[in-house]
Amino acid sequence: MVVGELSTISEQAALNPRIIQALNFLSNQQLADLPDGRVEIDGDQVFAILSTYHPRPVTESIELEGHRRYLDLQYLAQGEELIGWIPASGVPAKSSYDPEKDVWKASLPAGELAWIRLRRGIGMLLYPDDGHAPQFAPAMPSLVRKVVVKIAV
Prior knowledge:
Layout: E1 2-5, H1 6-12, H2 17-28, E2 37-42, E3 46-53, E4 61-66, E5 70-78, E6 80-87, E7 104-109, E8 114-119, E9 122-126, E10 130-136, E11 144-152
Antiparallel strand pairs: 1-9, 2-3, 3-11, 4-7, 5-9, 5-11, 6-8, 6-10
């Protein structure tokens, strides 16, 4: 996992050309002008999913997910949210993997996750060994505009 401004992520991930494509997309787009939904960057190798939503409150039991075929570059264009994180190896009972959606899911107590606060202009690069629980509200919830760039491994 890498968390920081796009310049920080760029420095740490410069060896992967698909990550560079994702960072260029985020840096060169007027994200507010794009509608919610999928945006093609490089076919199924690199694409973005834009969404606008109100984050949900943190509860005692948290559903988290992980992926095998894609990295997630989660970037906030507006608002703030909390993302729970845990190494996938620390998740004892995962659901079976859905290869069509590239996702496994699990539930854990909220206290077992590390919580990272993202705000406008901050991104989080998640690898296949990162379990994560996005879209949770900080103390003062606000409308979130998020871009998740999916990057093929």
